[in-house]
Design a protein that fits this description.
Layout (H helix, E strand, L loop, with lengths): L1 E6 L2 E6 L4 H7 L23 E4 L6 E2 L10 E3 L3 H15 L16 H8 L24 E3 L9 H9 L6 E3 L6 E3 L16 H5 L5 E3 L3 H9 L4 E6 L20 H11 L3 E4 L1 H20 L6 E2 L4 H10 L13 H17 L6 E7 L3 H5 L15 E4 H10 L21 H4 L6 H15 L17 E8 L2 E9 L1 H13 L6 E5 L16 H4 L4 H15 L9 H11 L5 H7 L9
Parallel strand pairs: 1-5, 10-11, 10-13, 12-17, 13-14, 16-17
Antiparallel strand pairs: 1-2, 3-4, 3-5, 6-9, 7-8, 15-16
Helix pairs in contact: 8-10, 8-14
Bound molecules: iron/sulfur cluster (SF4) (3 copies).
């Protein structure tokens, strides 16, 4: 059912249950928003989306006001422009305006609206200004409340979407600020470092702990061998840092850029995604056949691992002991590859480019040092790689497509889809089923575990065995699934959990997008499509058929699940407090 409305004097028919904001979007009119994120944060607090409605006594917040039959809406009157500008000036009156050295310079939504509404003359409201201490206490995320505009998007992400809830709104009135309970540092809270608060923050108030200078210096140090590998999802998102449309595959340009940055080896993490499958599928079969702890739960998402350690420690024994693909890569580089090249592992600087903030924590975990030094030295986000490329004067969009270096260049289609929710499950099923059945599968697509639903369940018949599997992404969904398992209402043999909703394509280290993109494009779906297209087009779609993975086992590890594989590729977890 539709209703008839007029927007700026033009008639439209719009859905009866639409908000004014949605009706304007349908009429190709962009209304500015700062606090609003569709389905997550709909609180009408920032007052940027104000519009005038004929007959109403005051301006209304279009993100929460519904349309009515015959409504006449005005979105661009002098009074509205004045109100929006005044809102921005009020925000800026208590804001650290150090844009030049802010991590969000040029991608900040506040900065953009100030530019659009002509807030230029520094003639803001004057008076007392808050001065907050910067919270630098975690290995992954920095919070600077001096740049916070109190939009509360981070709070919704942490409390609702992730069901972690370590941040909230503290104090009231002029003293209102975002913080942890009892003003604890984030590093002293059970934050899982997923970075979901970072990707929704419109300003520089929440950013990753940047390591770009360290990495560029390491690459320039000719006494070291700087090696880099890129996670499956980074090629699906890096183009966004250069203004390309979401869903652009830039694998070839990404490799070319890393080579021009000076790395001695540019490697493909899809290969260790395949290696993870070899180890994890072996672990699954072994646990099923020998009465091991079930369900087996995947371990490649460090945000999920930290969530499990803090909030569901009773499932620690269920976790696969496999290191994540990032850590497996660093471990191989400093053992197998170092030996091959005749290098001391101490002379290798291993860098991973990842969609994730939690991986900055993971590199410093215990049990992640196969060669006696950290497997991975630096984990940098997709955003940081984008900055390094820009800073180095590399014209990304003009680069030719290049290929990864051997002996770590090949990744299967199964490895490619690791970056989307359900991808690890599907990759593992392809290998586990063929190992059990001892013959090739006729169909490789396990479509029931694909898609962006928060929880997916399926039963697959493999020979005589019925395998029950489940997939959850976003830790609120993970909690719902684990509660089902705990209560005994449902039983599964194998569960995939990713901390970020939609999986790594939507990770906390991925390029930020302004709210008008987040509200109108399903980024998770669009980015995941890049990975499923790559899988579809590759001749090699199964991890166990990756020739370079086979060579690593033949030359070094023996067979999947061997003692040596356990020494190099597996780890352990610890119970942490809430
Ligand atoms: S948050 Fe935005 S407006 Fe504030 S200093 Fe950073 S770039 Fe400038
Ligand atoms: S990183 Fe994740 S858990 Fe930590 S505050 Fe942000 S959303 Fe919450
Ligand atoms: S930290 Fe960022 S997301 Fe959170 S309230 Fe402040 S500006 Fe909004």
């Amino acid at each position: 059912m539709n209703v008839n409305v007029k927007i700026n004097g033009v008639s439209y028919s719009v859905p009866r249950n639409a908000t004014i904001l949605e009706a304007c979007k349908a009429a190709s009119i962009h209304i500015p928003t700062l606090c609003y994120l569709k389905g997550l944060s709909e609180i009408g607090a920032c007052r940027m989306c104000l519009v005038e409605v004929k007959g109403a006594r005051s301006m209304v917040a279009s993100c929460v006001a519904p349309v009515n039959e015959g409504m006449e809406i005005f979105t661009n009157t002098p009074a509205i422009r004045r109100a929006r500008k005044m809102n921005l000036e009020l925000i800026l009156s208590d804001h650290d305006k150090n844009c030049l050295n802010c991590a969000r310079n040029q991608s900040c939504e506040l900065q953009r609206y100030c530019r659009e509404y002509g807030v230029e003359d520094q003639n803001y409201f004057t008076g007392k200004v808050n001065e907050f201490r910067k919270d630098n206490s975690t290995l992954a995320i920095v919070r600077d409340n001096n740049k916070c505009i109190l939009c509360r998007r981070c709070v919704a992400a942490c409390q609702v979407q992730q069901k972690v809830g370590v941040i909230g709104v503290n104090d009231r009135g002029f003293d209102t600020h975002i913080g942890c309970a009892f003003e604890k540092n984030l590093g002293d809270s059970p934050c899982i470092l997923c970075g979901q608060c970072v990707v929704v923050c419109p300003t520089g108030a929440l950013v990753e702990k940047g390591q770009t200078d360290d990495v560029l210096n390491a690459v320039a140090d000719k006494t070291k061998h700087a090696l880099v590998c890129t996670a499956p999802s980074v090629r699906a998102t890096l183009g966004e840092c250069f203004g390309m449309a979401p869903g652009t595959d830039v694998e070839g340009k990404m490799v070319a850029a890393l080579r021009r940055l000076g790395f001695e080896g540019v490697f493909n993490m899809n290969l260790t995604a395949d290696l993870t499958i070899m180890e994890e599928a072996t672990e699954l079969i072994e646990r099923i056949q020998n009465g091991g702890k079930l369900p087996l739960i995947t371990s490649c998402s460090p945000g999920w691992i930290k969530y499990c350690e803090h909030y569901y420690p009773e499932f620690i024994e269920n976790l696969s002991s496999c290191k994540s693909p990032q850590q497996m890569f660093g471990a191989l580089a400093k053992t197998y590859y170092a030996h091959k090249m005749g290098w001391d592992p101490e002379d290798i600087v291993f860098v991973s480019v990842i969609p994730c903030t939690a991986k900055k924590f993971e590199v410093k975990r215990e049990g992640q040092s196969a060669a006696g030094v950290y497997d991975v030295d630096y984990a940098i986000t997709t955003r940081e790689l984008g900055k390094m490329i820009k800073r180095s004067g590399i014209a990304f969009d003009e680069l030719p497509d290049e290929e990864f270096d051997n002996p770590f260049s090949i990744g299967s289609g199964a490895g490619a889809i690791f970056g989307a929710t359900g991808g690890v499950m599907e990759a593992a099923l392809r290998t586990a089923a063929e190992v059990i059945l001892q013959k090739p599968l006729e169909v490789l697509d396990f479509t029931e575990v694909r898609g962006i639903a928060g929880i997916k369940k399926a039963t697959y018949k493999i020979g005589d065995f019925e395998l029950n599997v489940a997939v959850a992404s976003g830790t609120a969904n993970a909690a719902e699934l684990l509660d089902l398992v705990k209560s005994g209402k449902e039983t599964f043999h194998f569960i995939e959990i990713m901390a970020c909703p939609g999986g790594c394509v939507n990770g906390g280290g991925q390029p930020t997008q302004p709210s008008y993109v987040l509200n109108n494009i399903n980024l998770r779906e669009v980015r995941a499509k890049v990975l499923y297209n790559a899988d579809k087009d590759l001749p090699l779609r199964k991890s166990h058929e990756n020739a370079q993975v086979k060579a690593i086992y033949d030359e070094f590890l023996g067979k999947p699940g061997s003692h040596k594989a356990h020494e190099i590729l597996h780890t352990f977890y610890v119970k942490r407090g809430k």
